[in-house]
Amino acid sequence: MLTFLGFLLVAFAIAMTFVYPYLRKTNGEIDVNGNRQPPHSPLLTMWDFKMRAGVFAFGLVLLLLSESVIFAKEGHQYYILSPSGARSTIMTPGIKFVVPFSKIQEWEKFIDIKCVALDKKGNYKQDVTGIEGIIPNGINVRFIDKVDANVYASVRFEMPNDDASFIKLVETYRQPSNLINNTLLPTISEQLKNVTFMYSAEDYVSGSATDYRMTIEDALKNGGFVVKKVEVRDTIYNETGIDSLVKKKRSIKEINKFIRNEKIFVNGIPKRIPHEINVNKIITAQVIIDDVDLNKAFEDKLKQQRDISAEKIIEIQKVETARAAQQRIVAEGERDKAAERVKQEKLQVNTLIAIETRVKEEESNRQLAEIAVKTAELEARALLIKEKAEADANRLKVNAGLTPQEKAQIEKETRIGVAHELSNMQVPTNMIINGNNANGNSTESLLQIKLLKDITNK
Questions:
Q1: Pair 75, 221 in one domain
Q2: Which residue has the higher pLDDT, 411 or 320?
Q3: Fewer CB within 10 Å of terminal CB in the chain, N or C?
Q4: 284-333: pLDDT as tens digits
Q5: 244 and 222 share a domain?
Q6: pLDDT digits over 374-405, tens only?
Q7: Are 154 and 115 in contact, with CB atoms under 8 Å apart?
Q8: 88, 89, 92: which is closest to 75 by C-alpha?
Q9: pLDDT recorded at residue 331
């Protein structure tokens, strides 16, 4: 607006400069001397030289002001080329002053690239407002196991933050559309295809999806990977049937061979190849893998494998259930056998204890009987020794000159005393003879007992 107004005032002042002499000539009066006097028209008076100069200066100021001041918007970066050929940039928002009549080129600070699906009519299935780069129906990639897929990715790029890199980028591509179509879209497609060839579709659906997405983001941010080709063998087994489940035997169905790319590491760090995004110091701000649409034939194969796996799991569960029931029955039988064994062992222990008790009782009785016999034998021997001593004493007395009457009296008293002592002695009525006693004489013991009984009965 200021540019237009300033240009209008300057043009008007210049036009009045050329028109003013003509107006004076046509409206001036001739004095008495024959000279034309300045017109007395108020309009001509107003547009004298000073007024024209003022309008021209004011218009020029407005024009210069409009060309010197710009308002930098948030989320934009500006490339400035001055009339002298100097280059500069504006990276921050706000009111900025530049050299008048400089060439100013505005760039978005962020560039969004998005893969969008199309419907049957060829229209986008979602809103694409504000998206600078659109990839219809995603990027077609191929896994190492020959499975095709369409990858739907959303990537946001940020322009370089330093002046030199941004100036070089603008001068190289001139327009954002050239950068998007000639660099960003081809680089994204290339990196997705390279990374995808490092994985198999089976690995992706089996748990490597997160690693796959992280690898894509790493490749776009830090550069492509230097890879080597490695031969991979994928062995497929036949595992259907009860026999294979119970006996756990597998037969090889087929062996697939294919080549895949693996990263090359140097001191534990992947070796990389810089791509155009890194070379131009464009920052990959965000990478999102919205979806990976696998080939329909592979999807059908996955469904079939899922159904087979479900049946296999059911059969395995049945086998495990039957095996558990069998083990339970065996365990219960072992438990009952153990209980019966414990019961019988208790009975045997009770019987053995009773027998051992009786044996110990008999042994105690035998020992008591032996002690009683020995005691009686000792007492009898003591009594015989005593009687023998008294008899010897009496015999000595007789030999010393006892009268027959005294001898008879002594013998009588002796017999009465012996009889009295024998009548008070307890003689065992039962006797247990140990046959293992090598020192004892059973015949002698019986004779001694009979002798004692005969003496007692007298």
A1: no
A2: 320
A3: N
A4: 999 999 888 888 877 777 666 666 666 667 777 777 888 888 888 888 88
A5: yes
A6: 888 888 888 888 878 877 777 776 666 556 67
A7: yes
A8: 92
A9: 83
- Inside any domain, residue 448: yes
Confidence band, pLDDT 50/70/90 cuts, at residue 156: very high
Pairing of strands 110-116, 133-136: parallel
The verdict on residue 302 lying in a domain is: no
User: Smallest Cα–Cα separation from 143: which of 278, 302, 288?
Assistant: 302
Concatenating the DSSP letter of every residue in 64-99 gives: HHHHHEEEEPTTEEEEEE-TTS-EEEE-S-EEEE--
187 vs 113, 232, 274, 347, CA distance in Å?
Answer: 12, 28, 11, 90
> Hey, is 293 helix, strand or coil?
strand
CA geometry: angle at 375 spanning 369 and 380, to 5°? Answer: 125
* Structural domains in the chain (count): 3
CA distance linking residue 15 with residue 41, whole number of Å? 19
Claim to verify: residue 158 and residue 140 sit in the same structural domain: yes
- Neighbouring C-beta atoms of residue 205, cutoff 10 Å: 17
Asked if the structure places residue 306 within a domain, the reply is no
Amino acid letter for position 142: R
Average pLDDT over residues 179-198: 91
**Which residue type is seen at 112?**
D
Residue 457 CB contacts under 8 Å (≥ 6 apart), including other chains: none
* Paired residues of 259 in beta bridges: 231
Q: Mean pLDDT, to the nearest integer, of 166-187?
A: 91
Is residue 309, in this structure, part of any structural domain at all?
no
Q: Which of 51, 77, 107 is the last residue of a domain?
A: 107
Threshold 0.70, pTM exceeds: no
- The answer to whether 425 and 419 are in contact (CB under 8 A) is no
Query: Using CA atoms, how far apart are residues 43 and 62, in angstroms rounded to an integer?
Result: 24
Residue 311, exposed/middle/buried by CB under 10 A (0-12, 13-18, 19+)? exposed
146 and 222 part of one domain: yes
CB 59 within 8 A of CB 13: yes
442: containing domain: 314-457
Q: Are 263 and 326 in the same domain?
A: no
